[in-house]
Amino acid sequence: MPQYANTPGVQINEIRxxxxxxxxxxxxxxxxxxxxxxxxxxVNDPRLVTSAEQFRAMYILADPxxxxxxxxxxxxxxxxxxxxxxxxxGTSCYVVNAxxxxxxxxxxxxxxxxxxxxxxxxxxxxxxxxxxxxxxKGQAERTGDRFALLDPPTGKVTNLTSLRPPNGADRPTDSSxxxxxxxxxxxxxxxRGDSPTPAAITPIGHIxxxxxxxxxxxxxxxxxxxxAILGALGVEHALTDADQDVLNQDGVxxxxxxxxxxxxxxxxxxxxxxxxxxxxxxxxxxxxxxYIEESLQEGLRWAVFEPNTLPLRKxxxxxxxxxxDGVWRDGGxxxxxxxxxxxxxxxxxxxxxxxxxLGKLVLEIGLKVAYPAxxxxxxxxxxxxxx
Length: 387
Prior knowledge:
The chain is α/β, with parallel strands linked by helices. The protein has helices spanning 52-59, 77-87, 103-111, 130-143, 204-217, 241-247, 283-299, 310-329, 338-341, 353-357; strands at residues 30-34, 47-49, 93-97, 121-123, 147-150, 178-182, 185-187, 199-201, 227-228, 234-235, 252-258, 261-265, 342-345, 364-367. The protein has a domain at 30-286: Rossmann fold. It is built from 10 helices and 14 strands. The strands form 3 sheets. A 9-stranded mixed β-sheet has the order 2-3-1-4-5-6-11-12-9, with helices on both faces.
């Protein structure tokens, strides 16, 4: 009980009424795996990096405490990706400097990212092996709180069917927790030993930065597409509308050259057109639901072990509705009113006396997500003079 003074007068005692509000989790912190320019630094040791300058100090520049140490002079897929991430709007990422460039060591490094809860995007820049694809995909699906960006194949694909299901040699396996981009981008030199002519590199780090930029400016519900990639001078393989017409339906996101530069011109997860469940065929839908799920999971932790009563249901409902109202107001849910956009209920079918005696409380939430307007269709007719 609070202690009150014995002096007559008005006394203030601040208290919290109702459950704590649910705060949204972060959506743009990335996790990158690869070999750093200074290959011996922090090997298989996930390190949080919050700026390009910090990355350079940790993985590129000479260590002033080591005699005769020198700066790295040649970029790697990892350094290109991390620097591209920060150049495109990324603010923080975890970096794992793998033991070597082999796929097996990349898989080991990817596994080190799994226990880190605040990672929302994972990538292994430059790796296109099936085992690496599978580990990225598997980790995203197992955790349910992150999204994997998968590298395009090296070089120009001469036959685009290799990127399509069911047997495309250059295509990863389908998953709504991954996105697959093609082709690689052209960039200038980063370090003094790089070739002065533009080089083709993985776009994944730059794209992760675009994800972070769009999340920060618009929100995770906005598709990370129709956005220019900063620092990209061109693409390794220029594609036409006809090429994209074939690939888009199978979840291959194309990087195109438009007047504003190299633009991400696709917003689909890696699902083929014949996938049984197309609910999560758009990147922003998958990531929005990830965001809502993890925010609720963390934001409702206060309710665990509370008495399973009707007042508890009311408290949970108020907290969840307060959070989802914000998602709706930001444009993440479709509906003229919040009631149109979502519902929150405790179905009696799943909350029977037997289930309550087992310590269970089942909350059901229905969402009307905002899908991207991928196809803008204009119907034009010419009126005759007397109409």
